[in-house]
Amino acid sequence: MSSANAPEIETVETRLLSPFEAQPEDVLAAQAVVLLTPENLGYMSGALKDFFDRCYYPCLDHSQGLPYALCIRAGSDGTGARRGVETIVRGLRWRAIQPPLICRGDWREDFVQQCRELGALAAAGLDAGVF
């Protein structure tokens, strides 16, 4: 079970979609979005870029203020991936719920827990009416 689906979070329904599956309708129906991407060649993944390419204009005037969180799995520093995503979400006028979570360096098991906590924060904030 993901932390976003914890029993104490009563009013939030979560959906897990790959960037290739997610459509503009999914974004428009969402109360918040958690974006996860690896850093590829110093940029976001091609899958996340594809998501933004398909969803940007259909969502542009209809998702302003949408709360979002970002997690980057970075082999180096994640700066390029962060900059790329933040440029796009700034254009969409989405609202970050916290600074990006950047899981840097060699893989560590605690990266999974950090991502779960990020999802739980987003869900708890929605459940409490904070976002």
Describe this structure in words.
The chain is built from 4 helices and 4 strands, in the order H-E-H-E-H-E-E-H. With 131 residues, the protein is α/β, with parallel strands linked by helices. Strands 1, 2, 3 and 4 form a 4-stranded parallel β-sheet that branches. The protein is globular, with a radius of gyration of 14 Å. The two termini are 23 Å apart. 26% of the residues are buried. The model has no long low-confidence stretch (mean pLDDT 93).
Strand content: 15-25%
Shape: globular
Q: How many DSSP E strands?
A: 4
Rounded to an integer in angstroms, the radius of gyration calculated over CA atoms is 14 Å
N→C terminal distance: 23 Å
The low-pLDDT segments are: none
Average residue-wise pLDDT: 93
Largest sheet: 4 strands, parallel
Fraction of residues in helix = 25-40%
**Order of secondary-structure elements:** HEHEHEEH
Q: Assign the structural class, choosing from mainly alpha, mainly beta, alpha/beta, alpha+beta, or little secondary structure.
A: alpha/beta
Give me the number of helical elements: 4
Summarize the structure.
This protein has 131 residues and is of the alpha/beta class.
List the SSEs and their pairings.
Elements lengths: L23 H6 L3 E6 L7 H14 L7 E8 L4 H14 L2 E2 L4 E4 L5 H18 L4
Parallel strand pairs: 1-2, 2-3, 2-4
Q: Tags for this entry?
A:
4 helices, 40% helix, 4-stranded parallel beta sheet, single chain, alpha/beta, 131 residues
